[in-house]
Backbone:
């Protein structure tokens, strides 16, 4: 009997073969990624800490750090791909893997960061078409002064976010950013594992993500629920159940590890989803 996943395999003319997976695979990507994380928690957390530490070091470089940071991200992200690839074959994630991207096709990886920076900047700028720049003012701190009381600043922040036009602008900005995010999602993996060129990797990732829009949509919803809704609910619940001096400490001890575990799982899911879409059944 044939595997129904392979019945939906697609090989675009001049592109990379991929498989159209069912919507349920969006959740499966996260479940399988967490299973990989759970087997080597400390190793993955160490890799995650090293990744963000390296980004902070790069971004604090005077004058050029703000531009170098986004460009280095795809190169460093190869470390998670390499670690997941190694674990899948019986190995264990290791810190030196974080720099594996600098030994691959760096010329194709670095421009991916530039695409991210330009694409997201344009998407943010596009929100001004909807709300007249209110969201941009909020993000860049132009709505409050340095001597403003924290309570007043927080109230202004909440009022701005409650504005229907600002909320619509956020949705519009997310839609504008979606092509950039989808084009970059599997692009580093295509560069590393299939020796793709910069432009071919972007096209291949975008094409496969759009073909798998059901699974991608379920994945995005699951990420939102697990990465945003759950931490917020935990924070509110602990604030209600525990007295004020204690709730902040308990929240930090509960929510911060949860977020770290989730972010590590999210990085692993880049490899798991790529493997499922571009190498299904292998």
Residues:
């Amino acid at each position: 009997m044939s595997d129904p996943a392979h019945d939906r395999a697609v090989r675009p003319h001049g592109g990379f073969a991929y498989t159209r997976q069912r919507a349920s695979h969006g959740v499966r990507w996260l479940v399988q990624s967490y299973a990989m994380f759970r087997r080597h928690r400390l190793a993955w957390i160490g890799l995650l800490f090293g990744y963000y530490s390296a980004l902070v070091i790069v971004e604090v470089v005077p004058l050029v750090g703000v531009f170098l940071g986004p460009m280095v991200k795809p190169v460093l992200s190869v470390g998670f791909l390499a670690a997941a690839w190694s674990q899948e074959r019986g190995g264990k994630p290791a810190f030196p893997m974080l720099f594996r991207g600098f030994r691959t096709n760096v010329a194709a990886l670095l421009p991916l960061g530039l695409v991210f920076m330009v694409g997201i900047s344009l998407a943010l700028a596009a929100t001004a078409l909807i709300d007249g720049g209110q969201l941009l003012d909020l993000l860049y701190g132009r709505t409050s002064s340095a001597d403003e009381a924290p309570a007043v600043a927080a109230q202004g922040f909440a009022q701005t976010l409650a504005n229907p036009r600002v909320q619509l602008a956020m949705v519009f900005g997310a839609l504008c950013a979606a092509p950039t995010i989808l084009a970059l999602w599997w692009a580093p993996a295509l560069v590393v594992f299939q020796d793709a060129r910069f432009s071919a990797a972007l096209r291949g990732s975008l094409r496969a993500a759009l073909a798998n829009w059901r699974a991608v949509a379920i994945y995005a919803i699951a990420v939102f629920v697990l990465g945003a809704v759950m931490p917020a609910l935990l924070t509110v619940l602990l604030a209600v159940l525990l007295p004020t001096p204690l709730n902040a400490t308990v929240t930090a001890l509960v929510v911060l590890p949860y977020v770290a575990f989730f972010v590590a799982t999210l990085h692993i899911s880049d490899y798991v989803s790529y493997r499922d879409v571009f190498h299904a059944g292998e």
Notes: Confidence is low (pLDDT under 50) at residues 1-7. The first strand starts at residue 9 and ends at 10. The chain has twelve helices and two strands.
